[in-house]
Write a structure and sequence with these properties.
The chain is an alpha/beta fold and 127 residues long. It has one domain: Immunoglobulin-like. The protein has one helix and nine strands, in the order αβββββββββ. The protein has one helix at residues 2-24, and strands at residues 31-38, 41-43, 46-50, 54-61, 66-70, 75-79, 82-91, 96-101, 114-120. Strand 1 and strand 2 (41-43) form a beta hairpin. The protein starts with a helix and ends in a 7-residue tail after the last strand.
Length: 127
Amino acid sequence: MGWILGLLLRMATFIAAVIWSAAIAPALPVHEIQVEARKFAFEPAVIMVTAGEPVRLVIHARDTTHGFSIKELNFHLEIPRSSEAVTAEFTAPPPGRYEIACSEFCGRGHRHMKAVLVSVAAGPSNH
């Protein structure tokens, strides 16, 4: 019976430590990136993020409907033509280069409408 009480005490201590460390650990700030989709480009053409950080993309299109697709990440958004932005939040993927393409036909230059998401490893100076 004493070993059960000891086990329960250790478990309670562990759970309290996890809750306490989560409560005092500073949350990573959200890296917000403004993106403009227009015929036939994304601006910026290179989106830099740090692996594991929270990211918020705020994307708008004023000329026509565009898509924002990163196939490798199974990430797809439709950006309607308007002054209203579409917002998406996600955790930056592992380090690498991820091609972004327009996934909504937007005219003759549609197939050239590309950008890249570059995710870099977190380092001592990144946070």
